[in-house]
Every structure is written in C-alpha cells, then in structure tokens.
Amino acid sequence: MSPWEGDRPTTEGDRTMTAATDTGLTPIPEPPGLPLIGHTLDFLGSEGFIAQLSALARGAGPIFRVRPMGQEFVCVTGPDLVAELSDDTRFRKHVHEDLRFLRGLAGDGLFTAFGHEPNWRKAHDILLPAFSLGAMRDYHATMLDVARELVGKWDRLAGSPVDVTEDMTRLTFDTIGRCGFDYDFGSFGRDDQHPFVDAMSRALAHAQKRSGYLPGTEPLHMGARAAFDRDVAYMGEVVDTVIRERRASGDTSTHDLLGRMLHTTDPVTGQTLDDLNIRHQVITFLIAGHETTSGALSFALHYLTQHPAVLARAQAEVDALWGDTDSPDPSYGDVGKLRYVRQVLNEGLRLWPTAPAYVVEPLADNVIGGRHAVAAGTPLLVFTPLLHRDAAWGDNVELFDPERFSPEREQDRPVHAYKPFGSGERACIGRQFALHEATLVLGLLIHRFRLIDHAGYRLRVKETLTVKPDGFTLTPVRRSSADRRSVQANASPLSAPVAEAAPPRGAATVLRAPGTALTVLYGSNLGTCAALARHLAEEGSGHGFTTTAAPLDEAVAALSPDSGPVLITAASYNGRPTDDAARFLDWLATLGPDDLTGVPYAVLGVGDRNWAATYQHVPTRIDELMHAAGATRMLDRAAADTSGDYAGTVDTWTAHAWAHLLGEYANPTEATTEPAPAQGTGTSGEPLYSLVPVASTVTGGLTEQHGLSPMTVLESRDLVDTGHPLARPKRFLRVALPEGLTYRTGDHLAVLPRNPDRLVNRALARFGLDPEQTVELRPRRRSRSVLPVDRPLTVCRLLTEFVELQAPATREQIRLLAEHTPCPPEQRPLAALAESVENEEVPSAHSVLDLLEAHPACALPFERYLEFLPVLRPRHYSISSSAAAAPGEADLMVALLEQPHRATGGTFRGVASEYLHRVGAGDTLLARVLPCAEAFRPPADPAVPVIMISAGTGLAPFRGFIADRVHEGTGGPALCYFGCDHEDVDYLHREELEAAERAGAVQLRPVFSQAPQNGDRYVQDRITREGEEVWDLLERGARVYVCGDGRAMAPGVRAALHGLHTRFTGSDSAGAHAWLEDLREQGRYVEDVWAG
Predict the structure, then answer these.
(1) pTM of the entire structure?
(2) Which CATH architecture has domain 936-1090?
(3) Annotated active-site positions, please?
(4) Among 3.20.20.240, 1.10.1040.10, 1.20.990.10, 2.60.120.380, what is the CATH number of 689-868?
(5) How would CATH label the architecture of 490-670?
(6) Shortest CA distance to 549 belongs to which of 507, 496, 620?
(7) 3-state secondary structure 1009-1022
(8) According to the annotation, is 976 in a ligand binding site?
(9) What residues are paired with 566 via a beta bridge?
(10) Who wins on pLDDT, 308 or 1028?
C-alpha cells in the first residue's frame, strides 16, 4: 500500500483542523519520525505494508497520524472510532493515490470511482439487484459446476501436492466469469493461469511497487509503466471480446451482471451504462470478484491444515449434512446450514482480511472520538488487521479460533470490530456472492478430502493491493466412508466427532455416553508424538469417546472440566518445548492453584535417554504445572525412551490409560459383551493379521501416512576418497523438489528408506516364503500399529517397503518368541534374555529376525511376526543446500552407518544410509521437507556473529548457511569449526567452502583427527586454542550452532566453552554451566545433534 493523498489540495482550513485549538481538542498522536521525510523510512524495505504499518502502530494507540514520502494520512484501528467512521452521513470513501492510479485500469468502475461521478451511482443502482437473494439462488448451480471442476482436479491429483493459491484463483476467476458474464475462461483446462490473471497480477504488483517509489523517481521506472500499460491494454481487449460476443449472440436477458449492464436502464436517468463504463465494471468484477475470494479460501485452507480439531469439527458438520457420499449435490439452502464452515472463513478473514485497509474522508470538518479534529477530505485509513486484533476480540488474538464467530460471542462484540469487506454504501457489493461461493467450495473440499500439510508450510503473505498466502501447497487425500460415518459435530473447539470403530475383543466393550469429550494433546516437532496422539484419538473413538487430537498450543485457556479427560504426549527439543507447545507451557506457568480443578489428565513423555541433561524435561514440567494448577493426575507420568523399549512403554501406558478411563467413565447401560482386543501383542487369541492370496499387486498407503512426495535424484556421488585406508563412506545427493514445494535453509528432508535385499531375503528364507506371492492384509481389529496396507501386494514388497526389519526386539516380543518355542534348550535362553532385558531396562541388541534365525525351533507364525514389526518410518537428514541460492533443489550429505553388530558379531548397517548410498541419478525418493526448530535458523540480522561447530556430515546445515551468505552478500563474522578424519580423505566440499572463504562469507577452521595440526585433534581442541577469538565473538553477541555427534563431540564442545568462561571471567564450574544454560535460554547456543 502507499501514502494516502486527498482528492483535493490541502487548504489552510485543513491545517487549522489538524492542530489542537483553544476548544480543548487533542492533537492526533504521531509516532516519532524524522524531519522533512516523516515516516518514509518506516515504509521502505521488503516486509510489506501490513508488517510496516503494524510495526509503526505498535504502542501508538487506536488513532495516529502517519507522514510517509511527503503525504499524510490518519490510521484508525479502534472499534469505537471505526464505528464513527462508518456513519455515511459524516464520511465517504476516499479514493486514495493507489486507487487513482488503478483508474488507468478500471476507470470509473464501482471500486475506483469517485463518489461524485454519475456512473458510480448509476452502476450501483443497476447492479445491486444482481446480488439479491433470488440472483444468488440462480448463481448457485454455476458455482457448484465450477467447484466440481476443482474437486475433480484434486481428485485426479490426490496424494500429490497441489498449489492451493493458484487453484483457488482458477476457481474464483472461472466462477465470476461464468456467473457474471456467462463466459468460460476454461482455467481448469489449462496447465498455466489464464493470461488475463497473469496480466492482472503484474498490474496489481506494479501498483503496489509504485506506491513505494520515492517522490520524483517515476521517470526512473518508465519500463515498468510501459509494461503496466501493455497489461491494461490486453485486459481491455479480453473484456471487449466478452462484451462483443454477448452482443453478437442476440441475448438480451438480464440474468447476469453483463446482461444487466447491457440492457437494464437506470431508474433515475433512464439510461443504460455506456460501453466504456461496462468495460470498467467487467474488469472491476473480474479482479475484485476473484482476487479476494481466492485469498480468503487459501487462508482458510491453510489454517485448517494447522488446526486438526477445527478441521474435524468442520468435517463433522458437512458429513452430517451430506452423509457418506463422495459427490454430494448441495442445494442453495445447504450452504446456509454450514454455520461452522462459515465461522472458519470468517476467522481466516479476521486474521488476514484480504483487502487489509479502506480509506474514508470527512464530508465536512469534523471531530472524532470526542477530541480529535479532522478536516474535510482528510484521508482516514481503517487498518483492518489491527482492528481485527483489538482487545474486543478477547485474549490470544493471534490464535485461530472460529468460536469467536459463534452467535453468543458475536453478540458480545462491537459490531464495527469486524470489517473485512469495507463499510457503508461503498462496501463490497459482492460480499454475499463471495461468502456463498467460499462456503460452498470449502465445504465440498473438506467433505471429499483430508488436507495434508506435506511441506510443513509456514505462512508467508504475498501483498499486492490484496493479500494471500505465498507458496502454499497441500496434499489432498481422499476420505473414506469410515471417515464420514456417524460423525457428530461437538460444540467445543477442542472436540472432534465420534468415529465408528470395530468393537474390541476379549473383554466387555464399554461405551461413553454421547457427547462426552476425550482430548488428546501433543507437542511434536518431528511427528512422533503427533502420530501417537492421532492413534490414541482413534482408539478412544473405538471405545465410544468423542475424541480429538490437537497440538498443545491449541489448548491454551481452553481446558476445563467440560473438556473431559485429557491425554498428553509430548517431546522436548534440547530441553525446550516443541514449536507447537511453547505457548501452552507459558500459559500453564501463569495459572493459580485451582485454575484446572476438575480436569483429569495423564502425561506420556517421549524422549531419548542419551540426552540425560534434558531427557523428559518438558513432559515432566507439564505434569508438574498441571498438578500444581489443581488438575487431577489419572496416572503417573510415563517416559517412553526412543532409544530403548519405546513400543513396550507406550503399550503399557496405553493399556493402563484405557483401563482407568473405561473404569472411571463406564456407562453400564452402553456396555456390550463383545470381546475386546488386546492393545499390542498378547499370548492368546488370533494373530492381528490374516493373509489371503490374491492376483494383483498394488501398494498400500504408507506414503499418504507420512505425507511424502516423490522426488527425483539429480546427482549422487562419493564425497570422500573411497580408495584411502582411512575413508569412511559419505555420499552426496541432490534431489529435485516437486513443483510448489519449498524449504528454508536449515530444514530437514525426511526420506523413507527401503530395506535392502539382504535383510528381506533373510526374512523370506526364515519363513520359507515365495517373494512373488501376492497377499492382502486384513486387520482383525483396530491397533495403533496396523500397517498402512489396504491393497494386495507381494510379500517381497511388503517386507521391503513397509516394515522395520532391524528394530530391537522388545521384552514382550522375546517372551512371546519363547512361548512359541517348544524345544526347551532353545526356549530357556529366550526366556532368560527377556528377563535380562526387563531387569536392565535397555533395548535388546537383537532384532526379532536375529532371534528367529538363532532359534530355528521357534514356531512363530509369519502373521504374528508381521504384528511385531513397526511401520517403516522416514529418517531425517539436514538439508545441506541454500534455499536462497537453489530453492527448487535439496542437497544431502549422508554418512554410511556401518559398525560391528552388538549381538551377532557381524556387520550392522543403517537401513536409510545404506539405501541412500545405493540410489543413483534418475531414481525416485519418497520424502518430505520438515522445518528445523526456529532456534536453529541463522540470525535475522546478518550482522550478528555466528560460530558453527560440527563433525562429519554435521557440516550439512552449515554448508547451507554459508551458501546463503555467499548468495545474499556477507554479513558479520562467521567461524566454521568442523571435524574431519584426514585432509586428503574427507574434507567435504573443500573447493566450494574455500571459495566462500575467499569471498569473505566465512572463516574455515577444519580439524583432522587422524592428522592433527597444532595439536588439534577434535573441534573442541581448536576452539580452546583459539579461545581469545571465540570469546571476543561471544562477548559481541555471537550465536553458536552445534550439529553432529551428540555422544562425544557435543559434550566436548560444551566443556570447551565452559573452559573459556572460566578462563576469561574467573568463574567456577557452576558459574560456567549457568552461563552456557543462559546462552541456551536466549537462543544463542543451539544444538541439533544425534547419538553417534
């Protein structure tokens, strides 16, 4: 947006009215500016108008004066003041500089016309009936036809990413074309956007950039102005073609906008609109009729992917209305019944009104707020993003909460606190058209599809004269009948519908009374706790509860006795909350002793015992704070160790949780006597799976479960001299990201591996199976660990692509192996091994396959063996490339995990690293981008000093950091310490890094463990030796990043930094530890490490 300028020159009267007078009026406040240029500097840069004006407004109050680039306007954000400005008897629309410039495109169309122009009133009166209830009913069928084209496209692409913003643009552009002008632009039959959309986007972008030109610099942008004029001419030609074809058709009906403009006379003047004005109106409707609606839909879909509880409730509403059918036929009246879907759209427009400001002016000299004088013609900008975040909206105004638009809460809120469509007679004439279209489309999409955030998208806003998400993609996945069956909407924002489930087996099935909630909350960065929470919610539905799974941050200020019992599973990131749990922890810390009285809860912590200093820190803190706030602990907190018997701990805790919940909340009148299944493995009953030979070979849904996309390998090569005796294999891979998928420097690529033939053949041989035998898996009961296989496939493919063959055997599995071993000499060692694993509380060094091969008398059926095997999971690798330099490609540095097998004496190889060492250029990987923790991002201010420390392939993210600095220009000092084996063997990316050093982007500090220089064998040695330089940067605010081996390297680095603190401050060991912890809390010391 731009400086805002009046319709007439400033007069002496204006200047008089803008100052306080002797009547006791108060001058309008103004944030500090600079002489002559005022606030010009606040509007320079790339942040965008919304961020710039929001920053300026921070602390300025509900009204303040802004003076950018020699112009002046008054910004208003308070509901009481906006209520005054909504009085059409005192204020009218102000056609500001940006709109005046757009008159070159839209002339005296409804949006850009001055209020005194005759064509504005004439067109308004002619067109207003085109948005009546009767007209809206007529448009509905056409809207539905276009919506079905969108649904059809997503159906064809189901399981693959779609560009949401582009597809919403196609949808809304075709809808206004066909409803308004009976003209089909055929956007869904094209690979690219219609040229009109491209021309319009360029024109609006030019108008946006032009608003930021410094006064007097327009001649420097003549090329851009010429391109704008060409785009305007092209759009005019397209519209003239539409008008010409209608006239040639002989159609004189007035059933749409174009018909009314051509053949309806103004009741006052008796005239029709002239052809030039009709062109301006058509262009106006083509722009305004699709640009803002596409943005509103895109924002709504984004927030639904981030708020699964809201999505579940919205889906419950559409499922209740349209039932179990893939292709419903909604009536016009149906759309009005989608009240919660409309609330979702309204809340998206609250947070991101797609037209983020409108401007009015006083008709005469006036006073607003009872104390501020404003002269006639003064531009008064209503800034809706801040109006929509006023205190009238309650607490947590940044939180997406559609319940703000419940009838009860709307009644309690000032009516002028919400202005996404402008105000008064110049408000958006097509508001109901846009909302009906958006509600219909959003309802159809969520009824047909699950929405998968496959890229971990973080909202970026693109601003022209409107706003929309930038680069937003998602993966639509078809919903099944089971997803929709018997789903009931629940009034709580943390509640989801009841899902029907197969009845349990082995004990009485006890069902809850309808409407009782069970909330499952999670804190998860990498997806483990999120997946576990979803499984718990599914199991809860099977027990009759109304369940939902949601991030912890969605529960801020939302827990009460009405929430029902609450299950929480959470992880930590270096002792800190995960990105979706930080606000929840902060909120818990503010609660009083009785604030959560009556809330029953249980906590399952997930972590890795290798990181003893921070192990289970966040789950422990959650448990303590909730208990201190008066919540009732249903179970003692459990700690699941991902490097130990994770599955066993989860199974045990889950069994205890359901036993408590069903015992506490049982409704005897709803009990059945059908047998219930054991959760996890058991010694009795039928196996989980039955195998049925079939003819075809189609894979199942593992890719869908993990949100993966196919990616092509562009390059694969060795990073080390493999002929050298010191060489340890390391591989470089470059993959092409799917169109529309992006990442940020420092992010991870999660890659789904495949089991090597050597492992698969061992399993096939142990069970005597034909690898080409095609089978179909049919789970006999619901289980958290069911493999995502719903179609026939070969046994070989099943073992290669779906299961973990090297997972350590749990104590329960070893017991079951012993029970299936009739031979006493073989049975006794298995029983003893199970006992030792249980006593030592460490995972077995054996996989189930290792034990089966070592005990040939064990008669475990293959079906039961499958039940033992976890679902194959993606492995995470730091992306080693720069998103700025190569946004469409991701590089990896992969070290082959190869070491002596602890149990068998052979060689153990990591499944994922072995797989990635086998793939070559042209092969396809299944992968997804995962965001790294925000704390691990490079500083926003490039001048901040950076110290990067790594060993081996831990260099990966820092290669990306350095490439960013080369690409964008160097910033502050940057030291990169990295450990290698030998200078001639594994100095990774040496030529590239040394070129970056010559460019001034980094100072390289390599260390060679097998050929030490200056006595430095490890990175911590060189850090200690160069302590003065390192300490100087730390004193100057440097941020320290550590990546790589967490067993030896990271502790060594911490010890070295402790030593520097003691050396330069004279502190003791406790003081040094406290100092480093303080750096960690400030985000100035960050680790991304793993067990070596």
Answers:
(1) 0.51
(2) 3-Layer(aba) Sandwich (3.40)
(3) 292, 421, 428
(4) 1.20.990.10
(5) 3-Layer(aba) Sandwich (3.40)
(6) 496
(7) CCCCECCECCHHHH
(8) no
(9) 519, 601
(10) 1028
